[in-house]
Design a protein that fits this description.
Distance between the termini of chain A: 31 Å
Radius of gyration of chain B: 22 Å
Structural class of chain B: mainly alpha
Strand order of the largest sheet of chain A: 1-2
CATH architecture of the largest domain in chain A: Up-down Bundle
Shape of chain B: globular
Oligomer: heterodimer
Number of strands of chain B: 0
Order of helices and strands of chain B: HHHHHHHHHHH
Structural class of chain A: mainly alpha
Helix content of chain A: 55-70%
Distance between the termini of chain B: 66 Å
Helix content of chain B: over 70%
CATH topology of the largest domain in chain A: Formate dehydrogenase/DMSO reductase fold
Number of helices of chain A: 21
Radius of gyration of chain A: 27 Å
Chain lengths: ~525, ~375
């Protein structure tokens, strides 16, 4: 729209995911690890335990090298990445939350300085001052998290900001406190997790055994607190019940990963708690993998929950503001798209012009074959299906912004999508698999069998002939339904699936009924 | 090809502070970032040079090692002080900055992994330098080269954001973000100007560091002063020539303003040239006389830097003026948040000051 779109084969969303998951995994350690250092140092000094103090010192070096370099720079990296992928969103955030970021920067300055003084002060500062510096570090790091949390949660649930544009209304938004609690818990968990990793390199002393159990306790306590915060967070998450039922196809699976990751972490953390002497690198690697899974799933859930917006209710992921939408409805999209290559003239080369529209309005979320790849879908759709789907995109599962192209623009975009299609996809040879596939690429785009917009109940008892007649008149039901225009063979497979569905009794809401695509 | 520049429209949300305040904060924090960057780049280059002279100059390896130990602190300061000006730049000139960044997306994104690698390089030199034996100088050279490359990327973006007229050709030629702005004649001289300035100011900082170490290590302190002031003088001299090249590479309209078209611009440039020449003379004088105070050369160097920052800013404002448009920018000042920021900034400075002072005292 207003900014050029970076054509990225892997997809901008995938790049953001890679950078941000790696960053949050370390940055939460940067917060919780600070508390771990100062508390464990206090314990070691109180107990006059030189071995334990050596453990803390060695860990603080690892902490410094990981958080100050990788953690801090990938944090800047997220800022760079989102500005490249969603410049309109960053611009809006900079205008609304400039002073939030500036305030966060003051904490960042303290944090970086304190981390260095803490490390370089081990042999130079007196004990009391060293501990004070450790506390300064932790408070600044947590305050930095608390500020960033306000901006990140604002994007998901801007709350009253949408009406009053008040900085603090958007900052202390409905998900602010549950998210802050969850992130604080995750930070404490990361402190224990990383200390469990470095503990595997320690000589087998009593200090190591104590430390391993101590770290396991941090992880377990954090998981308990984090789980409670997660339940709280779920209660205020917009559209959570729809999401669970499959409004966003991938989300139920990701939510399951989250639960699996947390459960795995709990089980793995019992190992160092109960058998500290046997804690080893395999356990550390498994625990780190489970932790990464939890972070990946958690962040993915939050990002997916925001669809189709980057700032919920204000800015779509295409860079279109909600309030601009009426202008697109009136004028079409090209009139409001700045970065159209003038060489691609619509009258002379509609497909090339469609390519420009695609880059500006689709490529911010979709790739050809990678993340959110379109080619696998296009292989199943003919031109008529594509043309019918484009004006109804806002109804598909996965939550997309509406396409407001004029008929000519829609034709051009469809012409471009045709050039992306390599060959018609072969349907699976097994009848049941072919039936499921026929469902997935048609009804399954918007419906599930028993979850989100369920079809089973409304189809129950219909015969094949009735179902066939229904397919012919779908577009008469509502404007949201496109006419069904698949090839005869695919139509027969879809009817197989619908017949099975109409005949099968209802099952649990989400899941594995014939054609049960509640992914 | 469409020669018409494409300029994004201003953000629909109002600026959260008067532009003048953001402008002052941008210039202030950018100057601080420059000082830290100069310590880093100048330090790395001078450490490398000293390492090369280790066989011929007594104490050179020690001083190189001492600089190497301090490099991670310089990186941390450079990055931390770089965040703030980038923030204020995005608030003031975001629509130019974001568009330019996307057009050169890959080079711009690569700055992050490059910075991580170079930062670890600095830590390796600092923590393990003595154990690297023959690898030490190549590692330091690679680290310095990456920082120079990062500077080149920054200069590419800083110049590309000024040239919306170049955007359509570059972007529609390669929307995959694999663009540089090397076709702009400003880029190379501007980059060299920044790098040689960094080594010059890095030299002054080394001399000042030497002064602080006079009591504990008189011989090392003398070397630091000699090498530092030498770098300051010679590289400032080189920078006068590079500066002339840079000046002539400016767009005609901007150049015209610096050449008498605008009293303000011409005055700034004249002041910059005079202070640079004074800096060369003062550096040579202080280098010849061991006991000479470093205060005059420091004051003139600070003045030169400030003048350079203002000159750079004037050139940017002039180049952007034709694209900014005459419509007033909406402002909704968030006074409470500005006050909170100011308060926290003062607190942060006080806390950092206290911690560093405790550490410095404890080290004596």
């Amino acid at each position: 729209m207003n900014y050029p779109v970076w054509e990225l084969a892997m997809g901008g969303g995938a790049l953001i995911a890679v950078v941000s998951i790696l960053h949050v995994f370390v940055s939460h350690f940067a917060v919780g690890g600070g508390l771990w250092l100062v508390v464990t140092e206090s314990v070691a000094r109180r107990r006059r335990d030189a071995q334990l103090l050596d453990v803390v010192r060695a860990h603080s070096r690892f902490f410094l090298l990981l958080t100050l370099v990788f953690g801090a720079i990938t944090g800047v990296g997220i800022w760079f990445t989102i500005a490249l992928v969603s410049p309109s969103a960053v611009s809006a955030l900079i205008h609304a939350y400039l002073w939030g970021w500036a305030i966060e920067w003051t904490f960042f300055v303290i944090e970086i300085a304190a981390a260095m003084v803490y490390w370089y002060g081990w042999d130079r500062l007196d004990r009391r001052v060293h501990l004070v510096v450790g506390w300064i570090y932790f408070v600044a790091a947590w305050a930095s998290l608390a500020v960033i949390n306000g901006i990140v949660t604002f994007m998901l649930t801007p709350g009253e900001w949408l009406e009053n544009r008040s900085f603090w209304a958007g900052f202390f938004n409905p998900t602010y406190f549950p998210s802050l609690t969850a992130r604080t818990a995750l930070a404490l968990g990361q402190a224990g997790l990383f200390a469990l990793i470095t503990a595997t390199a320690l000589p087998r002393t009593t200090a190591r055994a104590w430390c391993v159990r101590w770290n396991a306790a941090w992880v377990l306590a954090a998981l308990l607190l984090g789980s409670a915060a997660g339940i709280w967070y779920r209660g205020v998450f917009p559209g959570w019940s729809d999401a669970v039922l499959g409004a966003i196809p991938i989300l139920p699976l990701v939510a399951r990963w989250l639960v699996v990751g947390v459960a795995a972490m709990i089980l793995l953390a019992l190992w160092p708690l109960l058998l500290p002497a046997r804690w080893n690198r395999l356990g550390a690697a498994l625990l780190a993998t489970a932790g990464l899974l939890v972070f990946a799933a958690g962040e993915w859930t939050r990002e997916a929950g925001r669809k189709p917006y980057t700032i919920h209710g204000y800015l779509y992921s295409t860079g279109l503001r909600v309030e601009q939408e009426e202008h697109l409805v009136a004028d079409g999209v090209a009139a409001h798209t700045k970065w159209l290559d003038p060489r691609a003239r619509p009258a002379e080369n509609p497909a090339a012009f469609g390519g420009e529209l695609y880059r500006n309005h689709c490529a911010c979320c979709h790739t050809r074959d990678g993340y959110n790849g379109l080619r696998p879908w296009l292989a199943h759709w003919d031109d008529a299906t594509v043309r019918n789907l484009l004006p109804r995109l806002q109804h598909v599962r996965g939550l997309m912004p509406a396409w407001h192209g004029t008929p000519a623009e829609t034709e051009a975009l469809a012409a471009h999508l045709r050039t992306m299609r390599s060959a018609a996809a072969a349907m699976p040879t097994a009848p049941a698999a072919a039936a499921r596939e026929a469902w997935r690429v048609s009804c399954g785009l918007c419906h599930t069998t028993d979850g989100f917009r369920p079809l089973r109940e409304s189809l129950s008892g219909l015969s094949r002939a009735e179902l066939s007649a229904l397919l012919d008149t779908l577009h008469e039901l509502t404007d949201a339904m496109p006419p069904y225009a698949a090839a005869p063979a695919q139509r027969q497979r879809l009817l197989d699936q619908l017949v099975a569905l109409a005949a099968a009794p209802a099952v649990a809401p989400v899941g594995a009924a014939p054609g049960g695509d509640a992914r | 090809m469409n020669p018409t520049p494409i300029v994004p429209t201003p953000d629909a949300l109002p600026l959260p502070a008067p532009a003048a305040l953001l402008h002052v904060l941008l210039l202030l924090t950018f100057t601080l970032h420059l000082v830290a960057m100069n310590a880093l780049v100048g330090g790395a280059v001078l450490a490398l040079w000293l390492r090369g002279r280790a066989g011929a100059v007594r104490g050179a390896a020690d001083v190189a090692g001492r600089i190497g130990k301090a490099l991670p602190v310089c990186v941390a300061a450079t990055v931390t002080l770089g965040v703030a000006p980038l923030l204020f730049l995005q608030a003031l000139h975001g629509r130019f900055f974001f568009a330019a960044s996307v057009i050169m997306a890959w080079p711009w994104f690569s700055l992050i992994p490059l910075l991580i690698v170079a930062y670890y390089g600095a830590y390796l030199e600092s923590f393990r330098g003595a154990r690297l034996a023959g690898w030490r100088a190549p590692l330091l050279a690679a680290t310095a080269a990456i920082f120079a490359l990062i500077a080149l990327i920054q200069v590419n973006n800083a110049t590309l954001l000024l040239r919306p007229d170049r955007w359509p050709t570059l972007y529609f030629g390669n929307p995959r973000g694999a663009n540089w702005n090397l076709g702009d004649p400003q880029v190379v001289p501007r980059w060299l100007h920044a790098l040689s300035g960094a080594v010059a100011i890095g030299g002054l900082l080394l001399a000042l560091w030497g002064k602080a170490r006079r009591g504990s290590d008189p011989e090392g302190a003398r070397l630091m002063r000699r090498v530092g002031l030498g770098a300051l003088g010679w590289l400032t001299m080189a920078n006068v020539a590079v500066g002339l090249w840079f000046l002539l590479a400016l767009e005609r309209d901007v150049l015209r303003r610096f050449m008498g078209g605008s009293g303000h611009a011409t005055g700034l440039l004249a002041l910059g040239v005079v202070s640079a020449l004074a800096l060369i003379a003062l550096a040579a004088r202080a280098r010849r006389r061991d006991q000479a105070s470093l205060t005059p050369v420091t004051v003139v160097a600070a003045l030169t830097m400030i003048v350079m920052v203002l000159t750079r800013d004037f050139a940017r404002q002039t180049q952007l003026a034709e694209h900014v448009g005459s419509l007033p920018v909406a402002v909704a000042t968030q006074s409470v948040n500005i006050a909170l920021f100011a308060l926290l900034l003062v607190a942060a400075i006080a806390i950092v000051w206290w911690m560093v002072r405790r550490l410095a005292r404890a080290g004596r």
